[in-house]
Amino acid sequence: MDEITIPKISFVSLGCPKALVDSERIITKLRAEGYELARTHAGADVVVVNTCGFLDSARAESLAAIGDALNQNGRVIVTGCLGAEPEIIREAHPSVLAVTGPQRYEEVIAAVHAAAPPRHDPFLDLVPPEGIKLTPRHYAYLKISEGCNHRCTFCIIPKLRGDLVSRPAADVLREAERLVAAGVKELLVISQDTSAYGVDIKYAASRWKDRNLRARFLDLASALAELGAWVRLHYVYPYPHVDDVIPLMAEGKVLPYLDIPFQHGSPAVLKRMRRPGRQEKTLARIENWREQLPDLTLRSTFIVGFPGETDGEFEELLAFVEEAQLDRVGCFQYEPVRGAAANAIAAPVADDVKEQRYARFMQKQQTISAKRLKKKVGTRQAVIIDKVENGAAIGRTRGDAPEIDGVVHLSAWRPLKVGEIATVKIERADAYDLHGTVVGF
Ligand code: SF4
Which is the closest atom of ligand 1 to the Cα of 193? Predict the structure, then answer.
């Protein structure tokens, strides 16, 4: 009898949560066709590398990952953001089997079929209906749209991924329902610009359950809230209609958490960046949100050393973060990404100046973040358990997103399970994390 061989794929997923969602889709499809995931490149029939092409450092990482896969296996298919520029990949690694761009799921699958034909077997075609997730089982990213209609001068995403394409609301809801039915307790809503959701399809309604659901940011958020999982909103811009979601947060339907990439605090720099949203009103808006919802957690990212950034503009940025008192902040030194319009706008800021500004910014923000975290000491917080290892458990409050924010180190009178939500008395805070004891469930 012939030995049964099952085609095996090794998969490398680089880049942001959005790329991770693409990887999950490709893997789900391949698993449904009977492919297996290999533990090592060497043990696979073919390697798929999902690349990131946003920053030069990410491109270098992607090219290195392709090189590793070629050395260890030799049969490599490249997809993802860097795949939008095949000449770069082919120049560095002429022997790759195929190169496809972001979201070209069918092309990736076709390339896999050509390299390692699928073996049809009804017993192998079993894949859980919720798909394969690369993130832990209790939280999942939910991509609601792709691409972006803005043209921020430092960003090449619209070039790589095109203009905004929103998914119909019913599609998003059905995926969310499947995830929740499979045990997901937290949905992380992502896109390039979550607050612009539905603009491209003129907020068209689609049929979900017994009603027509419009593709509007607010309608989608409230429908997702009905599923009973935590709903966390990422990549929201401060458009006026974002104010409408605050009452949903106050009612406990959506997590009191907003991830808003402000990028700068100087109106002149924001103008040069061509950022969306009415930035001049941002501080007043934050104040208003906090009045309605005192425990709102605000996360943001900033860029220091944007071309032409003067000392005065940098001081404005520091004054902005002092005033805004944000909870969690990430900061990047400007990197001249190839193809970004910003590179030609003004003279680059010298590397040592960027470095100094970065250090000053981080120092200031660390003090603010630590002060805000300290306010939680003595309070009771709902905490979702992320990890249990050798009796020690780590979780997150409603104010902490996985992978980017802080954690809570827990002690408890009984063993905790990953994915359960406990009430925790917060006893101590350090620079980024909290420590507490479980007092209930
Ligand atoms: S909003 Fe700006 S930074 Fe964000 S994806 Fe669109 S163009 Fe890029």
Answer: 1
Choice from 52, 81, 145, 152 to test ligand 1 binding pocket (greatest atom count within 8 A of CB)? 152
The letter for the amino acid at 245 is: V
Q: Is the CB of 147 under 6 A from ligand 1?
A: no
Contact 78, 66 (CB under 8 A): yes
Whole-angstrom Cα distance, residue 275 to residue 267?
10
Pair of tokens at residue 187: 């949905």
Q: What is the DSSP string of 181-224?
A: HTT--EEEEE-S-GGGTTTTTTT-EEEETTEEEE--HHHHHHHH
The verdict on the CB of residue 337 being under 6 Å from ligand 1 is no
Q: How many residues does the chain have?
A: 441
User: Sheet of 36-37: strands edge to edge?
Assistant: 36-37, 8-13, 46-51, 76-80, 98-99
At residue 48, the pLDDT reads 95
- Model pLDDT, residue 277: 64
The residue with tokens 């802080």 is 406
Q: What is the DSSP string of 313-330?
A: HHHHHHHHHHHH--SEEE
Establish whether residue 152 lines the binding site of ligand 1, counting it when its CB lies within 6 angstroms of any ligand atom: yes
Contacts of residues 200-203 at CB distance under 8 Å and 24 or more positions apart, as own/partner, are 200/145, 200/149, 200/163, 200/164, 200/165, 200/166, 201/166, 201/168
How far is it, in rounded angstroms, from Cα 369 to Cα 331? 13
Q: pLDDT, tens digit, for every residue of 45-87?
A: 999 999 988 788 888 999 999 999 999 999 999 999 898 889 9
Whether ligand 1 lies within 6 angstroms of the CB of 146 is answered as no
What is the residue whose two structure tokens read 């930035």?
Answer: 279
Tokens of 177: 């329902």
Question: How many angstroms does the Cα of residue 270 sit away from the middle of ligand 1?
Answer: 13
Ligand 1, atom 5: closest residue by C-alpha: 192
Tell me, using a 6 A CB cutoff, whether residue 118 lines ligand 1.
no
Whether pLDDT at 410 is above 90? yes
φ/ψ region of 329 (left if φ > 0, alpha if ψ in -120 to 50, else beta) reads: beta
* Distance from residue 54's CA to the centre of ligand 1 (Å): 11
Helix ranges (H only) for 306-376 are 311-324, 351-374
Mean pLDDT of 326-340: 90
